[in-house]
Design a protein that fits this description.
Elements: E1 3-8, H1 14-26, E2 30-31, H2 38-42, E3 46-54, E4 57-58, H3 60-68, E5 76-83, H4 95-103, E6 107-115, H5 136-153
Parallel strand pairs: 1-2, 1-3, 3-5, 5-6
Antiparallel strand pairs: 3-4
Helix pairs in contact: 1-5
The structure holds flavin mononucleotide (FMN).
Length: 157
């Protein structure tokens, strides 16, 4: 199994920390959309897509990258996000990107999200919220998530 993770992490590097842990488990490089090679993606069995949440959405660099991709043709994918606020159970942050990927023909295996440091206004006024997150517990959850993917998709090669 060959995997790659495409990650936009522009605010505090929160999502990159999560991506790096997943990347270790899956033996997958973590690349920004601007660096991603579409041919390399096409050669992978599993592709991860993640970013922070900005105004309720994934970062536009990531969403636009997904929109620009050719058909996934049954390739497996997973989606992950970090955010300052919890998502509503009936409206997960990951849903729109999962839909876009499914429309492209990807089989989306699973999603992961966790809270992370947020200094966006008005939280900036109080020094931010979730300072120190993603912390050890969040990163352990990200590791467990990736181990589940690896168990389902196969050993990295
Ligand atoms: C301009 C801006 C808008 C944000 N909008 C939201 C939001 O709508 N909901 C939320 O839960 N967090 C929001 N956040 C917090 C980020 O999602 C959070 O800090 C995330 O972990 C950033 O990821 P990154 O450090 O990988 O870029 C926002 C942060 C910024 C800077």
């Amino acid at each position: 199994m060959k995997a790659i993770i495409v990650c936009t992490s522009v605010s505090h590097g929160n999502t990159k920390r999560v991506a790096d842990v997943m990347g270790q488990v899956l033996e997958a490089p973590v690349v920004a959309p601007e660096q991603a090679d579409v041919a390399e993606l096409a050669a992978c069995d599993l592709v991860g897509f993640g970013s922070g949440i900005f105004l309720q959405k994934f970062h536009p660099n990531l969403s636009e990258f997904v929109r620009s991709l050719p058909k996934g043709e049954g390739r497996r994918a997973f989606v992950f996000a970090t955010s300052g606020l919890p998502e509503l159970p009936f409206r997960p942050f990951t849903r729109p990107l999962v839909r876009s990927l499914r429309q492209k023909g990807f089989e989306v295996d699973d999603t992961f999200s966790c809270r992370a440091r947020d200094t966006w206004f008005p939280f900036k006024l109080v020094g931010g919220i979730n300072n120190g997150r993603p912390g050890a517990t969040d990163l352990a959850a990200a590791r467990t998530f990736a181990e589940g993917l690896r168990a389902r998709t196969g050993t990295p090669s």
